[in-house]
Amino acid sequence: MAGSDATAHTRRVRRARLACLLGASACALALVALPWPGSLPTGPGLLPTPDRDFEHTVAIASFWGLGAIGLGLVALAALAGFWARPLTASLPELAIPSPGRGFVVAVLLIVAVAGLVRLPLAQGSLWWDEAWSVTRLIRGPVEPLAVDPTRAALEPRHWARTIWYWKKPTNHITYNMAGRASLDTWRAAGGLPPEAHSDLVFRLPALAAALLAVSLVALLGWRFGFPGAGLAAAALLALHPFAIRYSVEGRAYTFLMPLAMLAALAMHEALRTGRLRAWLAQGAATFAILWTHPFQLYFAFAFGVLGLVGAARAPAPRRDRLTLLYRHLASQTLAAFALVAVMGPALVQFAIWYDLEGHPLGPGVFPELWSRLAAGMPWHTSHVATPPGAWPSVTDLAARIPGLEVWVFGLVPILALAGLVRLFRRPGPAGAVALTTLLAVPLAIASAHLNEQIFYSRYMTFALPTLLLLIAMGAGSVGALAPGRWRRPVTIGATAAVVALLAATYLPQLRVVTTRPIAPLRDVAEYLRSQAGDDPLSVLRAGYGHGGGMPRLYDPWIRDVHSRAEIEALCAEADAKGVPLFLFYGHPAYNRDRRGDGFELLDDPRHFAPDRRFDAVEPRFVYRVLRYTGVAPTGAPGHTPRPRGGVGQ
Q1: Run of H or E including 624
Q2: Backbone angles phi, psi at 623, to 5 degrees
Q3: Separation in Å, CA 155 to CA 7, 52, 59, 194
Q4: Nearest-5° angle of CA 400, CA 403, CA 405?
């Protein structure tokens, strides 16, 4: 190796070794600050025990994790001569022309539309999981005071719970950190008390990630060599009901779409150019995805295999192919180190909550998931209440729209396949990157089936932008059939026609997600609190069964009851105090199955009369408010009903 090349090699390897050794030194300093696990009362074992404090679990996992990372970084420093060395020859790069100013303007306009259609849902009430995170792990619950039940006070939560508590995986750590930072900033800027809460402020990180995803799919189309298809895919993603529904929630899966595209962009650049920084960027994206949503191991696995195959088949000398392989392995190792450093204390809690209950998947999971991805709505809607058609589905609409099922399950997949073929015919790794992103979905389904785990379609949103990009590219492939001078206008026209048809397909569900909240917890709480007026104790109000306690985020005087006996006790209390009693419930199918005894009273018009219904984006999130009629249930404690006055009578 001559002169300048040898100098560059030495300089790059030295920088890599220095970075690794600095990281190892930081781990050593952290170990000095942490307590020695053997000195803790519950012993140095890594896995938590029932009698171990949460703080000790965090300290022990951090100690052992940082110790292992420090040793690993020393090993990586020793091996830097392999993975940090420069390539002996440049990979043949495919030229990517600049998209132009019009492309940027179009992306900005599409992003603005995406923000407008997402804002109503982002401003709506939180739903069960979001409210759980806010009250348990972010802000803390607000509870009535024992000394003065007309007043309530906050029970704050420490940041350690937000970052590491994983005894229940409902703590989506990265989003809860972002949501808490957003709320804290909002309170500090407005001089608001620590119990102040805003649904929109909590969801601002999700809204920002959603808009980033819309712009990134356009960028992905450009880097793949199809900027027009990228713009079409961005327009489809901006209006896609499935994307809107799951891109504004305060949950970690809202970050998956932009992170998956960043991983795809980084892998594309790594395989296209071989540059070390691209491999490191891909490792950073893998780390961010797994920290955000640890169940995305199948995505990391798929891209890990792609990196191995891409490095082994790179059009380069054998030494350079080995260098690319070393870079891929080093980047994934660094991603694993980073994940253990920030997620280790949470991962060890996995043994506490891991659910061994089987949830076998049926064949309907495939058409249901495809229907949501391709049409933006469910394949069919179960437990649909009146009025008919309030929650659109493909099977319901197909009865009124001839050819809808052929379009969704026949033509749209053909367009996606045509786009994939078109991408593979283009030189470069774009086709392999797109296919790998999609293959992560059946890997996830297979894993859930083999392990009998619950499968949530919302976890698959990461594949939606790539799928829309392929559909747009498939529409544009029609232009290849036209004569030379007509090719461009035919491509544009065919793409515009497909975008218009898909937008029309989205429209029924788009109306739902832009006019209703995910779950009307806040609406229920505000309505019941308005019945109480200035005195929060002048009206008894309670939620029944699963989801009944979540409106307490907005009204701490709401009770949470789970049995017929508790309902009977509330009726007796309302009669004794002479105040109105309201009960509400959501999740009707689940609650009727698990809490059926209470519905013997709630469904009886002698005891409870329907008062108000609050719709939501799904039937299971509809909440119904009932009013106690004053007729004591049979079996209730003996008492004489009294006239109930007060506000709300």
Answers
A1: strand 623-628
A2: -115, 140
A3: 60, 22, 24, 10
A4: 90
Around Cβ 639, how many Cβ atoms within 10 Å? Answer: 12
Q: What are the structure tokens assigned to 373, written together?
A: 């991805």
Measure the CA–CA gap between 542 and 550, rounded to whole angstroms: 11
Of 75-89, 240-254, 623-637, which gets the smallest average pLDDT? 623-637
Query: What's the distance, CA 271 to chain centroid?
Result: 28
User: Residue 121: pLDDT above 90?
Assistant: yes
Sign, CA dihedral 455-458-462-464, equals positive
Let me know: does 440 contact 490? Beta carbons within 8 Å.
Answer: no
Q: How far apart are CA 542 and CA 554, in angstroms?
A: 13
Q: Cα 32 to the chain's mean position, in Å?
A: 36
pLDDT score of 154: 92
Predicted confidence (pLDDT) at residue 631 exceeds the cutoff of 70 = yes
Burial of 469 (0-12, 13-18, 19+ CB in 10 A): buried
Q: Is the dihedral of CA 490, 491, 494, 500 positive or negative?
A: negative
Q: Taking the CA atoms of 241, 249, 205 and 368 in sequence, report the sign of the dihedral they define.
A: negative
Residues whose CB is less than 8 angstroms from the CB of residue 484 and which lie 6 or more positions away in sequence, other chains included: none
> CA-CA distance, 442 to 453, in Å (whole number)?
14
Condensed to tens digits (0 to 9), the pLDDT of residues 283-341 reads 999 999 999 988 888 999 999 999 999 999 988 899 999 999 999 999 999 999 999 99
For residues 58 and 66, give the distance between their C-alpha atoms in angstroms, rounded to a whole number: 12
Q: Is beta strand 559-561 parallel, antiparallel or unpaired with respect to 540-544?
A: parallel
If you average pLDDT over residues 606-616, what whole number do you get? 95
Average pLDDT over every residue of 220-246 = 96
Residue 490: burial class (beta carbons within 10 Å; 0-12, 13-18, 19+)? middle
Instruction: Please give the Cα distance from 45 to 61 (Å, whole number).
Output: 9
Six token digits for residue 341: 């450093």
The token duo for 359 is 């949830």
Closest CA to 110 of 206, 213, 203, 209: 213
Task: Find, among 239, 139, 129, the residue nearest to 519 by Cα.
Answer: 129
d(CA 12, CA 6): 10
**Distance (Å, whole) CA 26 – CA 293:** 26
Count of other CB atoms within 10 angstroms of residue 258? 24
Q: Using CA atoms, how far apart are residues 228 and 476, in angstroms rounded to an integer?
A: 9
The Cα 470–Cα 286 span in angstroms is: 23
Q: Within a 10 A sphere around the Cβ of 297, how many other Cβ atoms?
A: 16
Q: How far apart are CA 135 and CA 521, in angstroms?
A: 14
Q: pLDDT tens digits, residue range 579-598?
A: 999 999 999 988 999 989 99
Question: Can you point out the beta strands (E) in 79-126?
Answer: none
Strand 623-628 and strand 581-585: the pairing is antiparallel
pLDDT interval class at 550 (50, 70, 90):
very high
pTM higher than 0.85 for the full model? yes
Q: Beta-strand (E) ranges in 348-482? A: none
Residue 435: CA count within 13 A, CB half-sphere: 14
Taking Cα atoms as reference points, which of 291, 325, 296, 287 lies closest to residue 308? 325
- Taking alpha carbons only, the member of 277, 385, 296 closest to residue 16 is 277
CB atoms under 10 Å from CB of 351, counted, come to 11
DSSP 523: H
